[in-house]
Amino acid sequence: MTEYLLPPYVPKFLVSERLPLIFPEGTPNRNYCVRDLAVSTVFTMLYIGAIEGSGVYLAPKHVYCMTDEAAADETDSARKGYAANALKAGFRATGRRWYADNTREPIRDETLREGFVALGAVYARSDLPTTSSKPRYALDAELAQLFNPELEGEALTEKIRRWQERHLSKAALARIVIQRRGAAASQHGVMVTFPNGETRRLAPGPSSVISRAVIEQFALRFLREPVVLWLSESGNKVIARDDTLASEIGLNIEADKNLPDIILVDLAGEAALIVFVEVVATDGPVTQRRRAALLELTDRAGFERNHIAFVTAFADRDAPPFKKTVASLAWDSFAWFASEPENLVQMRGGGAAAISMSQLL
C-alpha cells in the first residue's frame, strides 16, 4: 500500500456545514460548490488524501462508488485501500453506492471543472490527456485545512476570509460583499436615497434591497439625469410618485396591475427616456405580455417606442430567481444584476423600434 500522510478524518456533515461558509451567496456557480454532490466530492478528497502536494488524485469514480459503510471507516488502511481499489474494474465497496455510474459527468463537468477548479479550490493535473481516465484532481492544500475539525469559531472565520482573498477573484469577492450587505440591510428595513437626495424607507426584504440598488446604482450608472417617477412595494403599496413630472410629460401612472415596481425617467435628452423596472426577488419579470401592456400606456401618451426601455432587476445572475425566469424575459428588454452593477444584459429582438444599448450607456 502506498505510503503517504493522510489528513485528519473529517465527517461528511462537517464538510456540509463549512462549504456554504467558504462559498457564500454571490460566489460564481455557487450551487456547484455547496450541493450534496459537492459535499460528497470534497469529503472523498479528504478521505483518500487527494490534496495538493500529496501525489494522490481523485477521479469521479472515487465519489460515485463511495458508500456510507466505507465512509464511516476512519482507519488509514481503509482510506488508502479505498483510494486504490475504487479505480479497479468491478470494485464494489460494502453497502449501497452513493451515486450511479452516470453521475460521472456532473461530478467532472459541473462540480469540479465549472465549480471548484474554476475557483482555485481544486487543481487538475495538466500532464494527462483530456481523454485519460486516470485520477487528476486534488484539493487545494490551504482549503483542506479549513475542514480541520479542531478549527472553530473566530479562527475558522479568519482562515476562511484569508483563503477567499487569495483565491477568489475581485469580481467574486465584490458579489459576496454586496450579497452580505443586502442581507443585513433587509433585516431592519431599507433606506433608499433618490437621485435628488430625498430618502424613503422600504420594508425589510430582498425586493427592497434590489429596489435600492436600482435607484442608487443602476439609475446613476446608466441614466444621465435620472428621476424616480414611481416606486412601489409588493401589494401595490406606493412609496413614491411624482405626479407633477408625470403630468408634464403626459404619462398617466394610476396604479394598476400592469405597472412595474419602479419607473425611472432620464431627462437629459431632447425627449425623455422612460425606463420601466421590474424587481425580481422570487418571480415576476418583464415578460412579453407585461411589455405590451406598458407600451399601450406609453403609446396613449404619445411616446415614441425608441424612448421606452424595460429592465428586469435581479440580485445575482447565479441565484435561482434569474435562472427560473430568464426564459420568460421579454425580447427588447434588459436584465440587470445588483451584484454586478456595471453590467447590463440585452435581450435583443428583431423589432425595428427596439431601444439601442447606447441609450442606456
Describe it.
The protein has 361 residues and is α+β, with helices and mostly antiparallel strands. The chain folds into two domains: 12-168, Arc Repressor Mutant, subunit A; 188-360, BsuBI/PstI restriction endonuclease, C-terminal domain (Trna Endonuclease, Chain: A, domain 1). It is built from 14 helices and eleven strands. A seven-stranded mixed β-sheet has the order 6-5-7-8-9-10-11, with helices on both faces. Strand 9 (308-314), helix 14 (320-325) and strand 10 form a beta-alpha-beta unit. Helix 1 (12-22) crosses helix 3. The mean pLDDT is 86.
- What gross morphology would you assign? elongated
CATH architectural arrangement of the largest domain: 3-Layer(aba) Sandwich
Q: What percent of the residues sit in helical stretches (DSSP H or I)?
A: 25-40%
Radius of gyration: 26 Å
Return the structural class: alpha+beta
C-alpha termini separation: 63 Å
Approximate strand percentage = 5-15%
Order of helices and strands: HHHHHHHEEHHHEEHEEHEEHEHEE
What strand order characterises the main sheet? 6-5-7-8-9-10-11
Total individual domains: 2
Q: In total, how many beta strands?
A: 11
Largest sheet: 7 strands, mixed
Mean pLDDT: 86
Look at the structure and name the CATH superfamily of the largest domain.
BsuBI/PstI restriction endonuclease, C-terminal domain
User: What top-tier CATH class of the largest domain fits best?
Assistant: Alpha Beta
Q: Give start-end ranges of low-pLDDT stretches.
A: none
How many helices? The count is 14
CATH topology of the largest domain: Trna Endonuclease, Chain: A, domain 1
